[in-house]
Amino acid sequence: MPLNSRFWAIIFLSAAFFFSGCTKKKKSYDFDPKNTLFSRLGAEPPSLDWHKSSDTTSAEVIMNMMEGLVEYNLSDPELSLKPALAVKWRAENKAQRWIFTLREGVKWTDGKSFTAQQVVDGWERLLNPATASEYAYFLFGVKNAKAYNSGKIKDFSQVGVHVNSQGELVVDLEAPQSYFPYLLAHHSTYPIRKDVVKKFGDQWTNPRNIQTLGAYRLVKWDHDKAIVLKANKDFYGGEPPIKNVVLHIVKDAQAALNLFDTHKIDILDSLPSVELKHLRKRPEYRTVPLLGIYYFGLNVKKKPTDNVLVRKALSMAIDRKEITDMLGGGQVPMTSWVPKGMFGYMPDKGLKFNVKKARELLDKAGYKDRSRFPTLKLLFNTNEDHQRVAENIQAQLKRNLGINVELGNAEWKVYLSALKSNNTPHIFRMGWIADFPDPDNFLNLMTSYSANNHTNWSNKEFDRLILKAATVTDKKERLRLYGKAQEILVEKEVPVIPIYSYVSTQLVSKRVLGYASNAMGIKKYKEMRLQ
Amino acid sequence: MRSSSKSLWIDAFNRLKKNKASMVSLGIIIVLCFIALFARQISPYPFDEQHMDAILQPPSARFWLGTDSLGRDLLSRVIYGARMSMAVGILTAFISLILGTIYGVISGWFGGRVDALLMRALDIITSIPTLVLMILVKVIFDSVQLFENPELRALTSILLALSLVGWVSLARVVRGQVLQVKEMTFVEAARALGASQFWTVIKHVLPNILGPIIVLLSFQIPSNILFESFLSFIGLGLQPPFSSWGVLASEGAKSIRSYPHVIISPGVALFIAMLAFQFLGDGLRDALDPKMKGSV
After folding, report:
1. How far is B56 from chain A (nearest CA, A)?
2. Which helix (H) or strand (E) holds B179?
């Protein structure tokens, strides 16, 4: 081929590539910024199926396109409940039976009416062992729900939920549960369109297939790039003021910060800790305590963390304050399990930092000769702040105990599947943000039947305490039970090492109004306005 | 034979001496090697010691190059990074040298069908994009633990990944050189005098192709260092707390907005080392093969 024509061919091809890239980008996310809210997701949501997701990223999207029977009043610091799909509810028989009167005239995005049966369908799917939902235990307070979930009962009609002749939803519990309505603000108990799930199978959460009834509907899901939500004109609460929401999926915190600075996103949280010193001075900076804990789990089936003495030594050899000082966002160092700001927070519980004692314990465990102690593997999900914490812990364990820790990291999706596999590492990083403001949500996490317990640890006494505490209505007695349970968890058995109680650091653009930063980290776009 | 070969090397060295840039580079490389070998003794602090009272400090009298996001002294980390980066560069070059030479000599010396077969296999390896191959090898060898020493343990998979990619070009050059040399009269003479094939290759062929191999090696070392930095930068390289220049650059990039000093020092170190190796490589090529002067 003569040089000339080759030259033109190259020019033509590169131009074609160049312009094809341009037009595609423009079509996707170019909305009028006046009525579009831009926000950031820190990871690709693992699943938008509200029975299968268990992480905060997915929850943020789901909670804006769906509604539960009740929802939180976010402007109330106590996080009281307000009506959503249920207009009112009442307890009978000392809070053992709950009756919900449902809202009428609610339509799904395809025009079909919302019915009480769809709530029952949702619960059936959540509890169905075939769904393998991590949140199935949410409804274990419901009569026979646990038996149905474990396969002992095959017939769902025996589970304590039904629709009465007035069209009300009636829930019968195993035992009184004062916080039961709070569970219904969580996405795992949302109603579902059984027909849609059946028709599309795994693909039902595709923007083309999904049916929702919240303030926003999912119109686009460009994996690893962005999620686009559009206001739902038929929303029962009226069309929300912000018409479009674009959620950019940006893993890198620095890149996200750049996007905020160039006004490409309006709300940014989980700010990178290295930047806090400078960001703190900005008018857009906000900080709010979160009901959440940052902790490390230990695999109790793997040598040497199968030895309780080793686990205790590890927990005692980590100075939490050194970590929170390093992060500098106002996090509260913690050795107990229930986060600050929640009923049941007991800062005295847990193993305090004590190098001497930690060394003794490790000696006693048979590792007086430290060179015989195997190298521990510590895994965390890829994030620069988790890396900082992990590297600090690595150094602390080296300094205080003289043991070696190898670090590894993986993307969130891969990370979760690694934890669920049989090959869980010795130490893994985890966090838990409250699903509802009650200590049960945190202690339940470590029960033997919780799917979010990746430590392989199980303790009958602990399980019994948690089950019992959930049914006790006397506050003092509950506190006593939770105290005992925390002692088992963080003092006697130590399958987990709590590090700190979360604080959310945020940048919120001045043009966003009505965003109530709250202790559960919930963002409801329908309550926000743009200036 | 012996005296003539000696004068060849002396000749080459004299030519190299005239090239100022190369001599300066040689000096820099010797200093770098010295730093790498005695990293522990030279650095003011242990490379993984965290000073929690001094996080992300700018350069000061206490920390000459400042500290990183965990309060570690950057000067110590850069010095220690030199050890890891140089180790990767030199060790991988050495492993690929052995692999490539054996492969190339076999291919070139035996020729014919063996040559065709070996070279087609090489073509297949070359056709896989380097980065993909490297990442694949790295992932596979991640679980291989050959050493007890934590430094070597951390380096194992990256050494293997880089060497398995690096030997290919060496094998090509060696084969070409062997094909050329084996037709020469002194090889014929050695064979006629009854030298075995093995002996001929070791004693007569290899010394005569050493020049081009050395030149190629001097270019391969910096490219290995760069590849390691690159892999570390995208998170596939050394795992913390070990540092190479690439790891340091990757860490620095995370705080580049407010604390640019963290990325500057490893960047400058990498830049100087690259330049030095390039200039020395150039000089060596000119010195060992004056006819090739100017060509790549």
Report:
1. 8
2. helix B150-181
As a dihedral over the C-alpha atoms of residue B227, residue B233, residue B239, residue B241, rounded to 10 degrees, the angle is: 120
Q: What CATH class does B2-295 carry?
A: mainly alpha
Q: How far apart are CA A148 and CA B209, in angstroms?
A: 77
- Judge whether A218 and A48 are in contact, CB under 8 Å: yes
> Could you tell me the two tokens for A108?
């799904």
Neighbours of A300 (CB within 10 A): 20
H-run or E-run covering B136:
helix B130-141
Residue B107: both structure tokens together:
């291919």
By C-alpha distance, the chain B residue nearest A275 is B258
Chain A closest CA to B79's CA: distance in Å?
19
Residues of B with CB under 8 A from a CB of A: 48-50, 52, 55-56, 69-71, 150, 235, 239-241, 253-259
Residue B208, CA distances (Å) to A351, B115, B177, B203 in order: 70, 20, 9, 9
At how many degrees (to 10) do helices B150-181 and B206-233 cross?
A: 140
Residue B225: count other Cβ atoms within 10 Å of its Cβ: 28
CA distance B248 to chain A (A): 14
Residue pLDDT, tens place only, A205-220: 999 999 999 999 999 9
Residue ranges in chain B modelled with pLDDT below 50 = 1-3, 294-296
Q: What CATH topology corresponds to A290-503?
A: Dipeptide-binding Protein; domain 3 (3.10.105)
For A220-243, write each residue's pLDDT tens digit. 999 999 999 999 999 999 999 999
Tens-place pLDDT, residues B199-256 = 888 888 888 888 888 888 888 888 888 888 888 877 777 877 888 898 898 888 888 8
Q: Is the ipTM of this complex over 0.90?
A: no
List of residues 6+ apart from A369 with CB closer than 8 A:
none
Domain ranges of chain A: 1-64+214-266+509-531, 67-194, 290-503
Among the four given CATH numbers 3.40.50.720, 3.40.50.12780, 3.90.76.10, 1.10.8.10, the one describing domain A67-194: 3.90.76.10
Sign of CA dihedral A156, A160, A161, A163: positive
- Chain A's closest residue to B234, CA to CA, is A382
Kindly report the length of chain B: 296
| H or E element at residue A246 | strand A244-249
Measured between beta carbons, which residues in chain B are less than 8 angstroms from residue A254?
253-257
3-class DSSP state of B124: helix
The model's pTM is 0.81
Question: Do B41 and B76 meet the contact criterion of CB atoms below 8 Å apart?
Answer: no
Architecture of A1-64+214-266+509-531 per CATH? 3-Layer(aba) Sandwich (3.40)
